[in-house]
């Protein structure tokens, strides 16, 4: 938990600085790029977490991978290295993106379905999220065949479970209680 709190503190500091310098959008783009790169590359993630790899080597790799990054992003990397907190880079990037979206009044709606969302259904989900929260949202579709059908919608702290597996579980509980 302390790592998570530290990541949020770093993210808030970078967001504040980037907002003052009118570079918050560019840094947000960098943070999304960082999270995608770490998620897609097991080697990059292992390198960041490894205590064996020297900090100078980590910095060299990161600056070559993210060579077009904003100055605030490269300064964040330098700060994390000097504070021996580079392992938090992904958490800081995720926290920054979340804080940036909150600042802009945007949010991510996660929709778990058994099959990929169609464009029509995606539009309906966006409308429902706007109605429920009053904010614009970006839809992230997660495919999980174990829910059998229906969907599970999660926006911030709100979760609506309309999956077939959930309904079957409710029926099973009712029959076992009676």
Automatic annotation (TrEMBL):
Sorted UniProt keywords: ATP synthesis, Cell membrane, CF(1), Hydrogen ion transport, Ion transport, Membrane, Transport
Locations listed in the record: Cell membrane; Membrane
Pfam family, one: OSCP
The keyword Disulfide bond belongs to this UniProt entry's keyword annotation: no
Membrane topology annotation: Peripheral membrane protein
Membrane is among the record's keywords: yes
Classification via InterPro entries: ATP_synth_OSCP/delta_N_sf, ATPase_OSCP/dsu
Function field: This protein is part of the stalk that links CF(0) to CF(1). It either transmits conformational changes from CF(0) to CF(1) or is implicated in proton conduction.
The family this protein is said to belong to: Belongs to the ATPase delta chain family.
Name of this protein: ATP synthase subunit delta
Organism from which the protein derives: Winogradskyella immobilis
Gene: atpH
């Amino acid at each position: 938990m302390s790592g998570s709190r530290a990541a949020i503190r770093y993210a808030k500091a970078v967001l504040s600085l980037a907002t003052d310098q009118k570079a918050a959008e560019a840094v947000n783009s960098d943070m999304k790029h960082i999270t995608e790169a770490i998620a897609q590359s097991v080697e990059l993630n292992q390198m960041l977490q490894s205590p064996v790899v020297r900090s100078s080597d980590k910095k060299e790799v990161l600056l070559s991978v993210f060579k077009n990054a904003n100055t605030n992003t490269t300064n964040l990397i330098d700060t994390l290295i000097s504070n021996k907190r580079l392992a938090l880079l992904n958490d800081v990037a995720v926290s920054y993106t979340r804080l940036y979206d909150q600042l802009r009044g945007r949010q991510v709606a996660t929709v778990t379905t058994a099959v990929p969302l169609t464009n029509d259904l995606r539009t309906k989900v966006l409308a429902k999220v706007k109605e429920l929260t009053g904010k614009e949202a970006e839809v992230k579709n997660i495919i999980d065949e174990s829910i059998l059908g229906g969907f599970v919608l999660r926006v911030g702290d709100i979760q609506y479970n309309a999956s077939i597996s959930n309904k079957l579980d409710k029926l099973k509980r009712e029959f076992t209680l009676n």
